[in-house]
Write a structure and sequence with these properties.
- Helix content is 42%, strand content 17%.
- It has three helices and three strands, in the order βαβααβ.
- It has helices at residues 16-31, 52-55, 60-75, and strands at 3-7, 37-41, 78-82.
- The relative contact order is 0.30.
């Protein structure tokens, strides 16, 4: 089982959603060991938006990043998404 953990709050350590997702992932790891976790922080590093370059990748670096992000998602059996409540 692979777990993809995504956080998106800009609040950093004061974020309730980050605390919640951290606890959910920890609880999952306690009950389902060993669970490889891939972590992505969207506030720290935004995902590229859909663009013409994504549809017909002329930039090798952007194409590689998009392929890596898609591979993370496809490899995940469990996805935990932390999104702030505005």
């Amino acid at each position: 089982m692979n777990l993809l953990h995504i956080d998106s709050s800009i609040q950093g350590t004061g974020s309730a959603s980050r605390a919640l997702t951290r606890e959910i992932v920890a609880q999952y790891q306690r009950t389902q060991p060993p669970t490889p976790v891939t972590y992505r922080d969207l506030a720290d590093r935004e995902l590229p938006h859909l663009s013409q370059a994504v549809l017909s990748p002329s930039d090798a670096a952007e194409a590689a990043l998009n392929a890596a992000i898609l591979a993370e998602f496809e490899a995940a059996d469990v996805i935990v998404i932390g999104a702030p409540n505005l």
